[in-house]
Fold this sequence. Notes:
The chain has 11 helices and 12 strands. By secondary structure, it is of the alpha/beta class. It has a single domain, classed as TIM Barrel (Alpha-Beta Barrel), CATH 3.20.20. The strands form 2 sheets. Strands 1, 2, 3, 4, 5, 8, 9, 10, 11 and 12 form a 10-stranded mixed beta sheet that branches. A two-stranded antiparallel sheet has the order 6-7. α3 links the parallel β4 and β5. α3 packs parallel to α4, α4 crosses α5 and α5 packs parallel to α7.
Amino acid sequence: xxxxxxxxxxxxxxxxxxxxxxxxxxxxxxxxxxxxxxxxxxxxxxxxxxxxxxxxxxxxxxxxxxxxxxxxxxxxxxxxxxxxxxxxxxxxxxxxxxxxxxxxxxxxxxxxxxxxxxxxxxxxxxxxxxxxxxxxxxxxxxxxxxxxxxxxxxxxxxxxxxxxxxxxxxxxxxxxxxxxxxxxxxxxxxxxxxxxxxxxxxxxxxxxxxxxxxxxxxxxxxxxxxxxxxxxxxxxxxxxxxxxxxxxxxxxxxxxxxxxxxxxxxxxxxxxxxxxxxxxxxxxxxxxxxxxxxxxxxxxxxxxxxxxxxxxxxxxxxxxxxxxxxxxxxxxx
Length: 333
């Protein structure tokens, strides 16, 4: 130790909350957060069912979604992403692109009631296929190119219903360019595409598959979702989708792939989204329910970590809870 005690004194700015706020480097804003919702095609207007593996999250009728959105917007919710649970499924996912399908009807209703709310729609087929895969299946193989037309039809039907942005999550090669061309040729040049460009084949999706009734009947999704050990491949996927017309690049899941978020943010000059997925949500909820950790602090810490890694927007099931905390003025860490 030097005799003049001239060592670094980092504690000087940690003494009070005011000092810590003065030098804070990363902020979480209401506009950073997107809340996912599961909407069910049902004749029961008041249908609501809690998802067992995702406490506090629900499958909702359109009417109950509208009621929840009103409350959520009062605490600052600005954007949502919708996942549909259809009444019927078939091998060609025909409910996905039906103009009167669950997502199409929901979008029309939401935009009529809340025109200022940003409505993003998930574009995939797994919730709508009888086999649970994200594309057309023939002889046990998921076919890439024939699936593109159905994905584009689905995206177009969402936009025609009023969606502000579409988010293809299927991981079929070439789907961004195909969707962009279809949207543009139908006069929707200004509608952005948020690509699940970097979607890993992850064990963190389990609770979502229960919520959306989208688990594959056979096999898995390793032939089209990314292999977790790979990082350079993420750059190739993102680059390809940007060249095809993607406006936002998403990394999914978030917490196990913070390095990938950071890489994408540093390499490309486009907004980066990250999805704090169902398994991440459920782990925090489970540990908090047993008193093993403080839910509020862990939620804030994980979201700040995702933001610090480089995410411009975060899709999280905690979004509305966090907004309630923000609007109440309750402190965090």
